[in-house]
Amino acid sequence: MKMSALTLNKIENNADLLLEKDLWLASDVGLQADATHGAYYLSFSNITVDWLNKAAKKFVRLQATTRSYSTCRGYIRGFNHLNDYIQTLNTFITPNNVNRAFIVGFIQYLAQRDLNPMTRGITLMNIRTFHQVALQEEWLNFQDKPFIFNNDLPRDTTITPKFISKDVLIQLKRHLHCLSDWMQRFILVLLETGRRVSEVSFLKFDCLEQDSDGDWLLRVHEKKLKRERLIPISPACLEAIKAQQIDLKNSGHISPLLFPSRRQSKSPTISAPHINRALNKLAQEKNIVDANGIIWKFSSHQFRHTVGTQMINAGVPQVMVQKYLGHESPEMTARYAHIHDNTMKAAFVDYQDRLIDIQGQMNSSNDHLDARWLKQNILTQALPNGLCALPLTQQKCPHANACLTCTHFRTSKKHLEQHKSQLEETNKIIAQANQNGWKRAEEINQEVAISLTTIINTLENNP
User: Fold this and answer.
1) Which phi-psi region, left, alpha or beta, contains residue 329 (left: φ > 0; alpha: ψ -120 to 50)?
2) What is the homologous superfamily of the domain 15-152 according to CATH?
3) 196: left (phi over 0), alpha (psi -120 to 50) or beta
4) Start-end ranges of CATH 1.10.150.130 in the chain?
5) Does the annotation count 131 as an active-site position?
6) Which residues of the chain have pLDDT under 70?
């Protein structure tokens, strides 16, 4: 019991000492540093307002128990912005002075700085969370009422991910052999799986597993969600990983990682800047350009955006893309939903083809035209070989089944069944239009029905 008390006292003393420091190691609060990006510290040195500095440290220390290192760094960036704003004021600010008017000024201050909407939005959300936690923990005598609301957040808080175009990918693959063997494999794993660069950097040497069907899976550790997962991989990815394993074995390089650091440094892993520098050097040397002839600026995270975009455009359900990429929320996955023009065109052609197929196979069904988008946006008229698709926004078409009302139109009993079939289709459309209140569509098709009825009666009554 005495030992437990001593241990507890030591922990409390260490915690107090930590709050006196302005520079923390990530490990001081149980976080894993972001070695992939060369980041190891949490710095509070730019927060010079005393009460904000102390409360910010308490907040980050508490949040570190459930949040990632990168998230905690984001909190500190928000505090830096708030501290800078306070320094611009000509009055002494205490926690009790932080009210709605103060926050409105802070929002205006952020808007005047060269910050993108995403950064401003995240900053405001983080300060709002800080306000709530500080009240809950009784760290500061803030006013006990909300002062940041959802409509304060910039409307455009989502940055459209930048994916690598098909042309640029072709150029990259053409020159990929110019890079070292291990880097070729590293980039191929990024491109084939869409994993975060930190996840590929920390792949274990024995990261491959085979399921009961004999298919190969890749075991990845998702740092953001603090979990391990198995994901399916392509044959090309499998080949690259196995080649890397063989290469490490043959070189006698003993490492628990599949891609260990290639140089002497504090980081045991490959860093994102290292990959980016190599890719951009290759782009310069081999003139890898976009559609406008501009040298492409590579970022390792673009491969993730590219895989997400390709999956969406290939028709993979968004929930499956979310699962594969390891997104916590569907909103994250929705950012990848760039529908390319050729994808949209192919989807529309496929839609039209399927509609024609359904018409051919289900003529006896009363709701075979029950396609909501079509019925609500297209002025549907039955034709002998399909439908008229004049948009509803147009005026009445002067050519609507013009042959049926033209004095030069000629027909015979040979076409009787075709006329009957067209009348049947027209009557179904009239019924649908009447049921849904589409007056104009009903009127136009009634004119067609009258003409068809006259033609059919005439043909049947005249031998």
Assistant:
1) beta
2) Tyrosine recombinase, N-terminal domain (1.10.150.130)
3) beta
4) 15-152
5) no
6) 1-15, 35-38, 156-161, 224-226, 263-268, 331, 335-410, 463
The amino acid sitting at 454 is T
Looking at 304, 305, 419, 428, which residue is catalytic?
A: 304
Given the residues 81, 120, 327, 428, select the one marked as catalytic: 327
pLDDT at 18: 92
Query: How many C-beta atoms surround the C-beta of residue 340 within 10 A?
Result: 15
Active-site choice (61, 120, 131, 196): 196
Q: Name the residue with tokens 């893309």.
A: 321
The pLDDT score that the predictor gives to residue 342 is 56
Q: What gap in Å lies between CA 251 and CA 156, rounded to an integer?
A: 50
Say if CB 287 and CB 53 are below 8 A apart. Answer: no
369: helix, coil or strand? coil
* CATH 1.10.443.10 residue spans of the chain: 166-334
Task: Count Cα neighbours of 386 within 13 Å in the Cβ-side half-sphere.
Answer: 10
The answer to whether the CB of 433 falls within 8 A of the CB of 392 is no
CB atoms within 10 A of CB 216: 17
User: What mean pLDDT value characterizes the chain?
Assistant: 80
Identified catalytic residue from 69, 75, 324, 336: 336
Please confirm, yes or no, whether 419 is among the known catalytic residues.
no
Has domain 166-334 been given CATH number 1.10.443.10? Answer: yes
Helix axes 439-461, 416-436, angle to 10 degrees: 150
pLDDT of residue 39: 73
Alpha helix positions (H), 22-148: 50-63, 69-88, 100-112, 117-137
pLDDT at residue 360 in the model? 37
For 318, the 3-state DSSP assignment is helix
Active-site annotation holds for 336: yes
Supply the pLDDT for residue 425.
Answer: 82
| pTM, to two decimals | 0.52
The DSSP secondary structure of 201-266, one letter per residue, reads: HT-BTT-EEE-TTS-EEEEEEETTTTEEEEEE--HHHHHHHHHHHHHHHHHT---SBSSB-SSSSS
Residue 386 confidence (pLDDT): 46
What pLDDT does residue 163 have? 86
pLDDT tens, residue by residue, 31-80:
877 766 667 799 999 999 999 999 999 999 999 998 888 899 999 999 99
304 as an active site residue: the answer is: yes
**In 3-state terms, what secondary structure has residue 411?**
coil
Q: Which entry of 37, 224, 286, 415 is annotated as an active-site residue?
A: 224
Catalytic residue among 58, 67, 301, 375: 301
Burial 64-97 (b: 16+ CB within 10 A, else e): beebbbebbbbbbebbbbbbbbbeeeeeebeeee
Extract the tokens encoding 452.
């068809």
